[in-house]
């Protein structure tokens, strides 16, 4: 499973931080940060999700009020917008 984070879209509600430890607050920028994520050419940040963290990643995506987090399965199919 892979999570994709659009930091540009993030509005800093930090609900993802509560749901998934891979996210942290960046108070200076007013946005969340996907720790250890890799930035892609299109400005997104991606992270492979460990099997025991999949549920947390899905909850983080579902709680994001602006859909800045997307979860994909291992075949690349979108699971959570």
From TrEMBL:
<protein>
    <recommendedName>
        <fullName>Ferredoxin</fullName>
    </recommendedName>
</protein>
<dbReference type="InterPro" id="IPR051269">
    <property type="entry name" value="Fe-S_cluster_ET"/>
</dbReference>
<dbReference type="GO" id="GO:0046872">
    <property type="term" value="F:metal ion binding"/>
</dbReference>
<keyword id="KW-0813">Transport</keyword>
<keyword id="KW-0249">Electron transport</keyword>
<keyword id="KW-0479">Metal-binding</keyword>
<dbReference type="Pfam" id="PF13459">
    <property type="entry name" value="Fer4_15"/>
</dbReference>
<keyword id="KW-0408">Iron</keyword>
<keyword id="KW-0411">Iron-sulfur</keyword>
<dbReference type="GO" id="GO:0051536">
    <property type="term" value="F:iron-sulfur cluster binding"/>
</dbReference>
